[in-house]
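User: I'm writing a short report section on ligand binding and want a predicted complex to refer to. Could you take this sequence and adenosine monophosphate and write out the structure as C-alpha cells? A short remark afterwards would be nice.
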Amino acid sequence: MRLILLGPPGAGKGTQAARLVEKFNIPQLSTGDMLRAAVKAGTETGLKAKAVMDAGGLVSDEIVVGIIADRIAEPDARRGFILDGFPRTVAQAEALDVLLARMDMRLDAIVELKVDEKALLARIENRARETIAAGGTVRADDNAEALKVRLDSYRAQTAPVSAYYAGKGALKTVDGMAPIDDVTAAIHRAIGA
Ligand code: AMP
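Assistant: Sure. The C-alpha cells for the complex follow:
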C-alpha cells in the first residue's frame, strides 16, 4: 500500500497515519518529522530548514524531495509507505511521480482530510497541551502566529496539490471533522481496505 495523506496542519494526518502504520505494517514517512530530526541533530539540512519551519513557511522543494528520495529507497519502504506532509507543492508532486516511475512503483491512493479551518487553531493548541502533559517539548510552530503562516502556505501551495491529484482522478476525500475512529473507518473505505 502506497498512500498519501493530504490536509492542512491540524487535520489529523499524523494521528491517522499512526493507525495506518499499525494496520498495514508499513512506515509513515513524515517530512515534518524528518526535518525536525535534522534540526535536532544539527545537520546541514536542519540548519537550513530551522528558521523557515519555526516561522511556518515551506522548506525548499529541493531539500524535501532529496529527503524523500533517500527515504523511499530504504528497505522498509519496499512493501509500501504512508506519505504524511509530502507532497506540499505541485512541483513536489511532479518530482514524486518521476521518483516512483524510476523505481517502478505506483501510488495506490491519495486521501485528503477535509476540515473546517476554524477548528485548526484549537486542535494545534490541544496538541501543544497534550505534549506538555506528556513531558515533551512543544513544536516551535504550534502557535497561533506560525499557524497563520502555515495556513497561508497551505492555501497557496498545497491546496493545488489536491487539484493535481483530482485531475488525475486519484483523489479521495474524507470528512476530517468526524470523531477519530470514524475518520479511520472512512479512510479504510476510501482505500478499499
Ligand atoms: P509538519 O510536521 O508536516 O506540519 O511540517 C512542519 C514543517 O516542516 C512545515 O511547516 C514546513 O516548514 C516543513 N515541511 C514539512 N514537510 C514539508 C514539505 N513537504 N515541503 C516543504 N516544507 C515542509
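A remark for your report: Strands lie at 2-6, 28-30, 81-84, 109-114, 171-175. The chain has eight helices and five strands.
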